[in-house]
Amino acid sequence: MNLPMFQGFGKSLMMTVLSEVGDRTFCVAAILAMRHPWSSVLCGCLSSVILTTTLSAVIGWAAPNLIPRELAHHITTLLFFGFGLWSLWEAYNEDDDDNEELEQVEKELDAAPKDTTGKGPKGKEGSKVAEDLKKQRKPFLTNFFSPVFIEAFSVTFFGEWGDKSQLATIGLAADENAIGVILGGILAQVLCTVAAVAGGKSLASKISERLVTMASGVLFLIFGVQSFLSTMY
């Protein structure tokens, strides 16, 4: 691993860990693992975060080829400063004992429509009708993947898409070695997801969102200062 790749790997690893620990997708993995087979939840969540990390890094890698590299660098610097100040502001306004993210995710998962296709009229004829209806309503993807895998994948994917960590990954890949960013991001996502699935809701509830958010804000500002100084030398 050469120096640029190692630098991209290290930055991506630190940034992703501090952005993902205790966030929405972390809580999703923790709660789903308590309600469903952990292996399906782990595979679904990991598949989703690996895909989003790779796509984000590819977008960031392509950005300097679409716009001037100097402009891409300035945009990345502004992103780091913006995310740093945003994170510190969130940390300042958060209650250290508040698990709002965890509670919100749990409510949303509880409010999700439940599968009731297995219910129907009683008796042999009713069972046959219910079975036919179940087959007709069965989504196409469930022929290849379990419903738990699909739920874990889709909830994680849409939770990741467009959030702060994804945008930061795009900016980082535009400024650093994209392969290093992908490897660091994937390793960080694997560590966070495995911790969430293994620790469950009890671990998620013990994480200080305020402390993690503050640490990520400081890290973003450090990246911003480093990126700014690199334009001056």
From TrEMBL:
Compartment annotation: Membrane
Protein name as catalogued: GDT1 family protein
UniProt family annotation: Belongs to the GDT1 family.
Keywords from the named record: Membrane, Transmembrane, Transmembrane helix
Principal location listed in the UniProt entry: membrane
Regions crossing the membrane: 41-59, 71-89, 140-158, 178-199, 211-229
Organism: Coffea arabica (Arabian coffee)
Topological relation to the membrane, as annotated: Multi-pass membrane protein
Compositional bias annotation for Basic and acidic residues: 104-128
Region (Disordered): 99-128
